C-alpha cells in the first residue's frame, strides 16, 4: 500500500512544477548573479523575479525581501540582527515559539538581554493581558509566531503588532508554518519582520526569506561580499530561491481551494478520532488553527509508541513526546498549554497537506483506534481511568 | 534507529498483562517522565515461574520490558536479580544512546518485584544479598531539549 504522509508541518514534498522551474538553474543557467556576463545576468534576473514573486505574495516590496538559508536563519537574523544595534535591554517572545526563535532569544539573554516569555492559554492563544503587562520602556523587540508548529494555533498578530509598535518596539513574527497555508499580508499584519521557509510550502529545503519592512534597521550575521542588501552575504542559492518564489506563488494562487479542502479533511479526521478514541482531546484552538493541523493528547499511551505503530501501517505522523523528540522532555509548547507531562508524553501531531485524500484520512481512522486500544491494554496507567 | 529485535518485541510484546495472584509486584519509573513499568511475578521453588508486564512508554520501554520477561523466566531469584538493564539492551541488539538511560528500566522494575516478594514472605533481610541496593524510584535525569521541524 502507498505510504500516507501526514507530517506536513515537518516538511513537504517539492511541487513538480516548482522542481521544473528550478532545474535549469543547476546545469544551464548556473551563473553567479554577481557577475556581469550573460550567465550572471540570467542568474540575477531569476533571483530578482523570485524576490518580486515573494513580495507580491506577502504584499511587500521586492526591496523588503531578504533570502536566507531557511526559516531558522531568517529568525536568527530578525532577532539578533535587530538587537545587535541596541545596548542590551528587554525583549518579549511567546512561550510557544519554535526553537529557532526560542533558542535565539535565550542566546541573547545570555548576552545581557532581559527575556520575558509570555504565556498562552490552554488553546495556545497568547495571554493578552500578560502580553501588555510585559512591555517596558526599554522593550526593543517582540517576537510572536503567526501559527504554531505543534498545535497549529493562529495568533491575532495584527493586534499584537499594533500594541508593540505603539510602545516603540520592533515586531517580528515567525510565519514558517503559516506562509502558504493561510493568507499572510505584511501590511494588514503590520509587522516589521516576518520569517518564512521554502520547504514548508512545497518548495525546496535550504531556502527561506525574511521580510524587512522598509526603515527597519538590521545588522548582518553573515559577513562577506555584501549580498542581499548587505544583510546576508554569500552567493545566492539561485535554484532554491527560484523554487521558493514559484512555490509561494503557487500556494497563494491555490490557497482558497486548497485551504477549504485541507480544512474539510482535517475536520473529518478530528471528528473521527474524537468519536472513536475515548479520553482523547484535540490540542490547540478549535477553530483558529492551521487548516492541516490536527494535534491530539491521547491519555495512558506514549506518543512515540503511537507514531511507530502508525509507521508500521505506512502512516507517517509526529509526536511532541520526549521520546519522539529525542530529548528527555516533552515539547515545551505542550507544557505551555498547561498539559500535565504525562499527557504531553501522549501527544500525536497529524498535519495534512494538499495532496492528501479522504481515503487516506479514512485509512488513518481505521488503524488508529485499534493501535491506541492495543497500547492502552499494555499500559499500567489505563485501568486507573478506565 | 531501532534494531529489528526491538521492533519485533515492540510490535509483538511477550508476557503482557498482570498476574492475578502475584507473589511480587514491582512498579518503576514515572508517568511524568514518560516511562512507567508494572511487573508481576509468580515464584515457585525459588524460581521465577511466571512474569508479566504492563508498560507506559516508548518503543524502547515496551521492547525492553518484553525482552526482560523472556530472559528471566525460569531463572532463580538470585540469577534474575543479576540481569542488568545493559544485558537487556544487549539482547535487544542495542538501544539508541538517549534511550539507555530513560527507557531501559525493565531489569530495575523486576528487582523491585523480587524485593517485594522477599519482603512479603518474611525474607526482607535477604533483599540486600539477593537483590542488592534497590534502584531509586525511577527518577532519572534529562538531556537538553531537542529541536523540531
Description:
The complex is a heterodimer of chains A (about 375) and B (about 150). Chain A is of the alpha/beta class and about 375 residues long. Chain A contains 16 helices and 12 strands. In chain A, about 40% of the residues lie in helices and about 15% in strands. A 7-stranded mixed β-sheet of chain A has the order 2-8-7-6-5-3-4, sandwiched between helices. In chain A, strands 9-10-12 form a 3-stranded antiparallel β-sheet. A two-stranded parallel sheet of chain A has the order 1-11. The longest helix of chain A has 22 residues. The radius of gyration of chain A is 21 Å and the shape is globular. The two termini of chain A are about 35 Å apart. With about 150 residues, chain B is of the alpha+beta class. Chain B has a single domain, classed as Sufe protein. Chain: A, CATH 3.90.1010. A 3-stranded antiparallel β-sheet of chain B has the order 1-2-3. In chain B, helix 2 crosses helix 4. The longest helix of chain B has 15 residues. The C terminus of chain B is likely disordered. At the A-B interface, helix 11 and helix 12 of A face helix 1, strand 2, strand 3, helix 2 and helix 5 of B.
Amino acid at each position: 500500500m502507498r505510504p500516507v504522509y501526514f507530517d506536513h508541518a515537518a516538511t513537504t514534498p517539492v511541487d513538480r512544477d516548482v522542481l521544473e522551474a528550478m532545474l535549469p538553474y543547476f546545469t544551464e543557467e548556473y551563473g553567479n548573479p554577481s557577475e556581469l556576463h550573460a550567465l550572471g545576468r540570467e542568474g540575477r534576473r531569476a533571483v530578482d523575479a523570485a524576490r518580486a514573486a515573494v513580495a507580491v505574495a506577502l504584499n511587500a516590496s521586492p526591496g523588503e525581501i531578504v533570502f536566507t538559508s531557511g526559516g531558522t536563519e531568517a529568525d536568527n537574523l530578525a532577532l539578533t540582527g535587530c538587537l545587535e544595534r541596541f545596548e542590551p535591554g528587554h525583549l518579549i517572545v511567546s512561550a510557544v515559539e519554535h526553537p529557532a526563535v526560542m533558542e535565539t532569544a535565550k542566546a541573547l539573554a545570555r548576552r545581557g538581554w532581559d527575556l520575558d516569555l509570555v504565556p498562552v492559554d490552554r488553546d495556545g492563544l497568547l495571554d493578552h493581558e500578560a502580553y501588555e503587562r510585559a512591555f517596558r520602556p526599554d522593550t526593543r523587540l517582540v517576537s510572536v509566531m503567526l501559527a504554531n508548529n505543534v498545535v497549529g494555533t493562529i495568533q491575532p498578530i495584527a493586534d499584537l503588532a499594533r500594541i508593540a509598535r505603539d510602545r516603540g518596539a520592533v515586531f517580528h513574527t515567525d510565519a514558517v508554518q503559516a506562509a502558504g497555508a493561510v493568507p499572510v499580508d505584511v501590511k494588514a499584519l503590520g509587522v516589521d519582520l516576518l520569517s518564512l521557509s521554502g520547504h514548508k510550502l512545497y518548495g525546496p529545503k535550504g531556502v527561506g526569506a525574511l521580510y524587512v519592512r522598509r526603515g527597519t534597521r538590521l545588522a548582518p550575521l553573515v559577513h562577506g561580499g555584501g549580498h542581499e542588501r548587505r544583510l546576508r552575504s554569500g552567493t545566492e542559492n539561485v535554484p532554491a530561491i527560484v523554487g521558493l518564489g514559484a512555490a509561494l506563488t503557487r500556494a497563494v494562487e491555490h490557497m482558497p481551494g486548497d485551504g477549504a479542502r485541507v480544512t474539510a479533511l482535517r475536520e473529518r479526521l478530528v471528528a473521527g478520532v474524537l468519536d472513536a478514541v475515548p479520553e482523547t482531546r484535540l490540542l490547540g484552538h478549535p477553530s483558529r488553527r492551521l487548516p492541516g493541523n490536527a494535534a491530539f493528547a491521547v491519555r495512558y499511551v506514549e506518543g512515540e509508541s503511537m507514531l511507530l505503530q502508525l509507521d508500521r501501517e505506512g502512516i507517517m505522523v509526529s509526536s511532541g513526546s520526549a521520546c519522539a523528540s529525542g530529548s528527555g522532555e516533552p515539547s515545551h509548547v505542550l507544557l505551555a498549554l498547561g498539559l500535565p507531562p504525562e499527557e504531553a508524553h501522549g501527544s500525536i501531531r497529524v498535519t495534512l497537506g494538499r495532496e492528501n485524500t479522504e481515503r487516506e484520512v479514512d485509512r488513518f481512522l481505521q488503524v488508529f483506534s485499534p493501535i491506541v486500544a492495543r497500547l492502552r491494554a499494555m499500559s499500567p496507567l489505563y485501568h486507573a481511568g478506565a | 534507529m531501532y534494531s529489528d529485535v526491538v521492533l519485533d518485541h515492540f510490535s509483538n510484546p511477550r508476557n503482557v498483562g498482570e498476574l492475578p495472584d502475584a507473589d511480587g509486584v514491582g512498579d518503576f519509573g514515572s508517568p511524568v517522565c514518560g516511562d512507567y513499568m508494572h511487573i508481576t511475578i509468580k515464584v515457585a521453588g525459588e524460581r521465577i515461574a511466571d512474569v508479566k508486564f504492563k508498560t507506559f512508554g516508548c518503543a524502547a520501554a515496551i521492547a525492553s520490558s518484553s525482552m526482560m520477561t523472556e530472559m528471566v523466566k525460569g531463572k532463580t531469584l538470585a540469577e534474575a536479580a543479576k540481569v542488568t538493564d545493559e544485558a537487556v539492551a544487549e539482547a535487544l541488539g542495542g538501544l539508541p544512546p538517549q534511550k539507555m538511560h530513560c527507557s531501559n528500566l525493565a531489569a530495575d522494575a523486576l528487582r523491585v518485584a523480587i524485593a517485594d516478594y522477599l519482603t512479603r514472605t518474611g525474607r526482607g533481610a535477604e533483599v540486600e544479598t539477593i537483590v542488592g541496593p534497590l534502584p531509586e524510584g525511577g527518577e532519572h535525569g534529562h538531556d537538553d531539549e531537542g529541536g523540531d521541524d
